[in-house]
Amino acid sequence: MNPNELDTGMLRFTTGWDAAVVPRSIIALFGALILLLTLRAIWKRDCGVPAALLWLIAGAVSLTFACIPQQIVNSVMTTEYILRLRIVMGGLSLLVLLITLESIRKTRLQERYALLWVATALTILLCALFPQAVNLFRAVTGMQYGTAVVAVAFTFLVLVAFHFSIAMSAMENDRDKIAQRVALLEFRVKELETKLAEKEKSSGIKADRSRP
Amino acid sequence: MPVRPDSRNTVVIVPAFNEEASIGSLIREIRQTVPELPIVVINDGSVDMTAAVAAQNGAEVLDLPCNVGVGGAVQAGFRYAHDAGYEYVIRCDGDGQHAPESIPGLIEAMRSNEVDMVIGSRFLIDGWRGKNVVRHCGIYVLAGMLSVICRKRITDPTSGFQMLNRPLMYCFSRSYPVDYPEPEALALMRREGYDFTEVPASFRDRKAGRSTIRGWGTLYYVFKVFLALLVDRARHVDQRFSKSNLRDKT
Fold first, then answer.
1. Which residues, in sequence order, are CB contacts of B249 under 8 Å at separation 6+?
2. Which residue on chain A is closest to B64 by alpha carbon?
3. Distance between CA A116 and CA A159 in Å, rounded?
4. Which of the 8 DSSP states describes residue B121?
5. Structure confidence at residue A173 as a pLDDT band (50, 70, 90)
6. Does ipTM top 0.85?
7. Cβ pairs A/B, distance under 8 A
8. Among the four residues A201, B17, B33, B84, which has the most C-beta atoms within 10 Å?
9. What sections of A8-80 are H helices per DSSP?
10. Min Cα–Cα distance to chain A from B234, Å
């Protein structure tokens, strides 16, 4: 099937974009709301620069998206689909990279866990910049370019998920050891308290502790 | 005027993970070189008899319930030293790489310089040993990069053979990198306004155990350290831990 051939559902949007007033106004309102809230936050100085930048981009994108005239929709529809896919992929991978680095900067993410995310983002970026990079993979599996990129990204995300499982198991082990140690220490403290109380009782010294 | 290091205000911390084979002789060596200093072994969740061997040889033992990695273990040591009221702490790794005979050199440098940290550098004493060319090349590149970041020449940025004073001890006990912490800690302390100096120190090949940096670990080390140094430049300096803020408070 020719990928540029559109089904009727998509066709209604692409040819009747000018007439789709309700969805477009909803998107525009949404974008305006995001912009307004972000500007308010910037005015009150209660958000960081990267976060503000991300939200401003999000608001501006949805607002301009709603205002796109029919001609641009037509020209987008006639560009090569691989090019569009590459632009979206590249944008997404840059977003992942930005969010990862920002999380490290805010010390919310350790470098250990950032490794696979950075690798994922860079691989997709590589596939977007150089479509030839997946050619061998495509030749072996017979996949289309888009499917091949998604498959590569999927592999990395499975790795991320597996990494989480391993990290979680390690954390559970550590938690068990800490819990055991706390219980043992508590037991020893109680034992020492009892011994101390007995000693005080036998020697007749009044304990000057606040607790009875 | 800062307090000078002496036998009453200095402690040696020895982070150790599965080092039962070498920890005993290391403690005896440290005791021989600096008999007056207390030694605290931080047992980083070893599965062997490290803690028992250390205690038998007369060291105090801080026993962590699980393995927290070099950064966490060293930080536990700093925290202990700060809580116990010590003015100076010397770190000497439990794998025997840091030769105790160089400890007096660290103390002497701390005594005669107005610095917050003294680092024992293996490259000031015998230059290139050429045994592990790849590793030394990596260290060389890292040293160049860190020298630029720190605006001060550093020859051995991965050395954990260090002596630090109380304000820096406090700073590190609050925030310290998790794994492979030394280069990142250097960049961090420079940004907080602390100063360091290097002295020649002899390093030995490990007698037992294995380095944590090998195979895939090398790749991760490079990735982690460079990413951390890069991102660290974009961080705000936490003024609460800066030298100017802590000088009289700790």
1. none
2. A178
3. 8
4. E
5. very high
6. no
7. 35
8. B17
9. 8-15, 21-44, 49-67, 70-78
10. 7
Structure token pair of residue A51: 């976060």
Q: pLDDT tens, B125-159?
A: 765 555 677 777 888 889 999 999 999 999 999 99
The distance of A85 to chain B (nearest Cα, Å) reads 29
Cα dist from A69 to A8, A14, A73, A75, whole Å: 20, 11, 7, 10
Contact criterion met (CB < 8 Å) for B223 and A181: no
In whole angstroms, give the CA distance from residue A173 to residue A179.
10
B6 to chain A, closest Cα gap in Å: 34
Residue B231 and residue A110: Cβ atoms within 8 Å? no
- Only one residue has tokens 């794994």, namely B179
Number of Cβ within 10 Å of residue A18's Cβ equals 12
B144, B136, B120: which is closest to B203 by C-alpha?
Answer: B120
- Numbered residues of chain B with Cβ closer than 8 Å to any chain A Cβ: 45, 65-67, 178-179, 220, 223-224, 227-228, 231, 234-235
The kind and range of the H/E element at B61 are strand B60-64
Query: Across the interface, do B45 and A118 touch by the CB < 8 Å criterion?
Result: no
User: What's the rounded Cα separation, in Å, for the pair A114 and A202?
Assistant: 61
Rounded distance between C-alpha atoms, residue B163 and residue B161, angstroms = 7
Phi/psi of residue B60, nearest 5 degrees: -75, 145
Whether the pLDDT of residue A208 is over 50: the answer is yes
C-alpha B90/C-alpha B13 separation (Å) is 6
CA distance A180 to A190: 15
Query: Which pLDDT value is given to residue B207?
Result: 61
Q: At which residue do the structure tokens 């599996």 appear?
A: A141
- Residue B40 phi, psi dihedral angles, 5° rounding: -120, 120
CA dist A39 and A63 (Å) reads 15
Can you read off the two tokens belonging to residue B68?
A: 């927290």
For residues B160 and B91, is the Cβ–Cβ distance under 8 A? yes
Instruction: Count other Cβ atoms within 10 Å, centred on residue B166.
Output: 22
Beta carbons of B231 and A180 less than 8 Å apart: no
